[in-house]
Design brief:
The structure is a homodimer of 361-residue chains.
Chain A (H helix, E strand, L loop, with lengths): L4 E5 L6 E6 L6 H4 L7 E7 L2 H13 L5 E7 L8 H13 L7 E6 L1 H13 L6 E5 L2 H5 L6 E6 L2 E8 L4 E5 L8 H18 L1 H15 L3 H21 L14 H11 L6 H18 L5 H13 L11 H9 L11 E6 L2 E5 L3 H11 L1
Parallel strand pairs in A: 2-9, 3-4, 3-5, 5-6, 6-9
Antiparallel strand pairs in A: 1-2, 7-8, 10-11
Helix pairs in contact in A: 3-4, 6-7, 6-8, 6-10, 7-8, 9-10, 9-12, 10-11, 10-13
Chain lengths: 361, 361
Amino acid sequence: MDRMITVNVELGERAYPIHIGADLIGQTALFAPHIAGSSVTIVTNTTVDPLYGDTLRAALAPLGKQVSTVVLPDGEAHKNLGTLNLIFDALLGSRADRKTTLIALGGGVIGDMTGFAAACYMRGVPFIQVPTTLLSQVDSSVGGKTGINHPLGKNMIGAFYQPQAVIADIGALRTLPARELAAGVAEVIKTGAIADADFFDWIEANIEALNRCEPEALTEAVKRSCEIKASVVAKDEREGGLRAILNFGHTFGHAIEAGLGYGEWLHGEAVGCGMAMAADLSVRMGYLDDTARRRLVDLIVAAHLPTKAPALGEKRYVELMQVDKKAQAGAIKFILLKRFGETLITQAPDAEVHATLAAAV
Amino acid sequence: MDRMITVNVELGERAYPIHIGADLIGQTALFAPHIAGSSVTIVTNTTVDPLYGDTLRAALAPLGKQVSTVVLPDGEAHKNLGTLNLIFDALLGSRADRKTTLIALGGGVIGDMTGFAAACYMRGVPFIQVPTTLLSQVDSSVGGKTGINHPLGKNMIGAFYQPQAVIADIGALRTLPARELAAGVAEVIKTGAIADADFFDWIEANIEALNRCEPEALTEAVKRSCEIKASVVAKDEREGGLRAILNFGHTFGHAIEAGLGYGEWLHGEAVGCGMAMAADLSVRMGYLDDTARRRLVDLIVAAHLPTKAPALGEKRYVELMQVDKKAQAGAIKFILLKRFGETLITQAPDAEVHATLAAAV
């Protein structure tokens, strides 16, 4: 499995390539075209640095750049202003300038924080994403969403900021815990469900291969997910409308994450459960037939993801959804399913929302 | 003096008007076109809120929006991540959404922090600037630079983000301390010096009227400064090249501010002294004749601005200038003067820089 596939995200002057394949982190040639300045700062965490830090530094060595590394604590609980400031401290401490390239080596938390730091440091420096989890390969690779959490809401502080390139190394998934692999599969399922019925069928047929971390299946899943997301984002870079469909499962999912405290459930687990809830609401409101909902729930279960929501209380769920970024003046917008590949965005009657919440726990 | 002048900053889809005149803060009609959502958050400080907060809230009342106010501590020393977070706390506490408009009511610190908060909150919400100091009216009104300081450097963390409109109320300058008025005149002088010899002559002829805070002179000074800066920024929104000339006096000036600790000297005072130093270096390097340098220094003195630099030590000055955002790989770029209206950007030999530093203290 030495095939490398490149998906191009078409965003005019902000266009960039996503390279997908096995053992890419060590390939100097993939980084060389995207590092213009004289220095590089790698941002990673205590889990990933021992696994892939040396491989990346060895790949960069022939380029003759000044390379420094910032190692952050691992986990969603650290995706906050204090940890972000550690990146700024390191950049200023190493005299990083306006041409210094940041490289995010890690999962979604590292990618989101590094991208946001790159967006803000001296009002913008280049960065490269090297996502090492399936979730970050299929999700944060495309879309330019960067940011941090606030105690009152997830990703509330951030920027739209595009990387120079994404290097999605499928080989890095060999060291990924099974629970995190499943969390990534959740976003793959989401992408099929909202945008491509054929891809949804393919996921159903290949779910065991994905669970077993087979490189060929993973490469295909990452490629199709990135292509679909890239086509949505190219039409709506700053989330004016269409792009909101990518938040299928996220309205309920974000409430679960915020309600339990970030880090208790993985983002993908919350999205898995959130998709089951959104499908339930879709059926209750008469948009989706129950057979499709069952197929979706069965696939979520087959991916070893939760479909039973934590008992936060219905009132708390509604409160949490009202502070979601997609809400306006307290009105919650749900992304619902009509059939695989077709969505709609709508408010929902309180009674139906409460019925879904009651059925989900 | 009821004349209102509008300068349009031409930035395509990010274009916006700057309204300049006396007693504009109370005019509902100036705000109405720029507030689309259902809520407004005013960000101000403990000095300005008692002076103009009620006037602004009264102007907004007829629009029927939910209005909240965040009152921050006053001063450059508070332009940091911790104070920025107070804005985010308030926005999330009041359930501000993606259409909430932020209004910055205050000087440059309030404008920079509010603009940056607007750039980051939910990855971008609209904001209006109501600058209440001369410096912020002529400087931060145009250019979209927002941000905060880091202990190791000024404005190191920020974004380019344009307001919906700027309401520059000349009447608010009546309550401005003389020292802050002078700091604003420093940027007016800078604008004339780098871009428009006729305007420089006009400032020389009207410096006493500006010192006396005469509305007609102030309106003209703000108008010409904004026009000149707008024309530079329109050609170079993200500071690729031309725009760097606006940093005349700032390389030395930022070193003074950082070296003394932010807040010890006002930004405009540091720029005043920094211009005298940059002119000195310009003469030493053979670009500027000494008669022009003397005219500039005389005008800085007439504006009651310092021309004698604090004794930080030459080594420290160089260190501080090396971490300036304009430096690359430690090489310092100076904006020098050839004549009024004409600049050049260059590195300088150590010997000349040290001679300027030695002569300035």
